[in-house]
Design goal:
2 copies of one chain form a homodimer. In chain A, 35% of the residues lie in helices and 17% in strands. By secondary structure, the first copy, chain A, is an alpha/beta fold. Chain A has 2 domains: 15-251, Type I PLP-dependent aspartate aminotransferase-like (Major domain) (Aspartate Aminotransferase, domain 2), CATH 3.40.640; 254-352, Aspartate Aminotransferase, domain 1 (Alpha-Beta Complex). In chain A, β6 (145-146) and β7 form a beta hairpin. Chains A and B meet through α1, α3, α4 and α6 of A and α1, α3, α4 and α6 of B. Chains A, B: It is found in: Cytoplasm.
Chain lengths: 353, 353
């Protein structure tokens, strides 16, 4: 039976990517496994360079002063690295949920942080708007998509200072003017690849302006100077990310996948809105195209619904443990057919109820 | 043709491990790939717990107050984390080469560091002995094996303060009383698994004694409290490490592999000593069992030797770019047969010359 994997991340990747990744574990270069070759060997250096250049190409950032790095430690390490590299006196953060709050917490170790806006009082079910970004701050930080609450920033402010964005859960999923951002970071395990590597795309001219001494592994300039190979990189996760970026390019790039993602999101949200058994969590205008969060209005139907999901091969639909309910994560590699299968179950539940 | 992979790391892993890893990329749990399942799903939580407990079991550290963590960022991140978590006023470091020097450099950002001993003047071709470790220091740090220079600590001091050891390149390769150490760390990519995860084994009672505020991702206590799942772990590297630790356990544990490693080291060093064409780099008593470093006395034979190596399927024998010459890395999964193949080529070169 076909599985429909709505996992929130790590998440589904294209079948062809899995196939090539599996083969490379057995034979990548002339009989040697990808796992046993030197990261300084030409075949792997080529992989790293290709992955880095595909990132800039897909984001439309080639020749604009940006560098792409494949680091480790997840977005959680970036919460810290951003502050270490950019925070001198004060920064402004938009608080749109759990991940923003964690970014704020880590940056506060180093300096004062100002929340330019927050939707915490409303359980983060919307994106604050109309906030001011002080011009004399070091940078502004925001989270483009909130996996737990299912909200997404549809537009970004005209920012008078460097704009830093955690795009872990929606990078490569929609067309944006990425040159508005000075630093973008993203854990790989949604739309880029498997868990174990973290993408950083940074405009070089914002670096080198803080007075603190930055530890080597935390210093973007060190990683840039070493071509993202300051120390042994996470070879397999970088390789699979490269395969996945190639897949996206061959598909037609972000523009092509964005159209698919639009269709998937329209389908699920129209079911949520039309079916009286379900209720969306996020306010409509801020709904995430990646993570649709919803609840079942009648708790008595829970067991029936979940049995039906199981029977239909639908996997990974549980809401995050901090909010409950359901969450359909619809990352790039999830097909429209999988969303159709889910919507069918939701609609069948209505006819049964 | 069989390849003999003497790569310094990432390095050879057992064939059976590669096979299972390759299969898991296609189907790990009920039709789902290892790369697309949630790290919070039971099948992966089981992998993480098994990997952590195999580490303690193999090192003989069960029930002795230690915790095993699978982190990210390589030993290079540990240079920093060790200092952040343990360094209050002063620490003593033994400088035995490039990796020790890097550890010292990163720790110096936080506080004063004292080199208890160094072999730098001799090009790090031996391990300093007879040094004193001041009792009022926070900890003592050493590097058990030096991949670049081919030296290895055969014994460790009776240490009056917490002893921290970078065992990246020889953990799980020889029997030691691991309970002498309070913190051991190791990048996975030699004897533990593929690149992308870093093992930390720490005695809990040495933690929580510094006054600084430690960022969450840098705090061992945070990772311990979350069962090594504070954030998304590097799923694939952890899984392959678990497979490799299982392989080692089934083989008879460290004791069994240590006997094999003895045989391999004796074979290569006896050839280096008997064959007048070659010269070992490290002093005999400190020679590494993992990395045999040597030079060809007559540079004119270089091309012939390298052509013969290629023909014999011998791979990864180049010395580190900072010292040149040759380096035969003989990690756990490299068979005695591969060392025999190398020794045959060396001996054949002698008969030709």
């Amino acid at each position: 039976m076909k599985k429909h994997n709505f996992s929130a991340g790590p998440c589904i990747l294209p079948k062809s990517v899995m196939q090539k990744a599996s083969e490379a574990v057995l034979d990548f270069d002339n009989g040697l496994s990808l796992l046993e070759i030197s990261h300084r060997s030409k075949p792997f250096v080529d992989v790293m360079e290709k992955a880095r250049s595909l990132v800039l190409e897909l984001l439309g950032l080639e020749g604009k002063g940006y560098k792409a790095l494949f680091l480790q430690g997840g977005a959680s390490s970036q919460f810290l690295m951003v502050a270490l590299n950019l925070l001198e006196k004060r920064a402004g953060y938009l608080n749109t949920g759990t991940w923003s709050a964690k970014a704020i917490k880590e940056a506060k170790i180093y300096d004062d942080i100002y929340e330019v806006g927050t939707s915490e009082a409303a359980g983060f079910n919307y994106i604050p708007k109309g906030y001011d970004i002080p011009e004399d701050y070091d940078y502004f930080h925001c989270t483009s998509n909130n996996t737990i609450f299912g909200t997404q920033m549809k537009s970004f402010p005209d920012c008078p200072i460097p704009m830093v964005c955690d795009m872990s859960s929606d990078i490569f999923s929609r067309t944006l003017d990425f040159s508005k951002f000075d630093l973008i970071y993203a854990g790989a395990q949604k739309n880029m690849g498997p868990a174990g590597t973290t993408l950083v795309v940074v405009k070089e001219d914002i670096l080198g302006k803080v007075s603190r001494k930055i530890p080597s592994m935390m210093d973007y300039k060190v990683h840039i100077s070493k071509g993202s190979m300051f120390n042994t990189p996470p070879v397999f996760p970088v390789y699979v990310s490269m395969l996945n970026l190639e897949w996206l390019k061959n598909l037609g790039g972000i523009k092509a996948i964005a159209e698919e993602n639009d269709k998937k999101a329209r389908l699920i949200y129209s079911e949520i809105d039309l079916n009286p058994l379900f209720k969306g969590y996020a306010v409509k205008e801020d709904r995430s195209q990646m993570n649709a969060t919803f609840t079942l209005e009648n708790e008595n139907l829970k067991d029936t619904f979940e049995a039906m999901l199981k029977e239909a091969g639908i996997n990974g639909l549980n809401g995050h443990r901090s909010v409950g309910g359901y969450r359909a994560s619809m990352y790039n590699a999830l097909s429209l057919d999988s969303v159709k299968a889910l919507v069918e179950v939701m609609s069948e539940l209505e006819s049964k109820a």
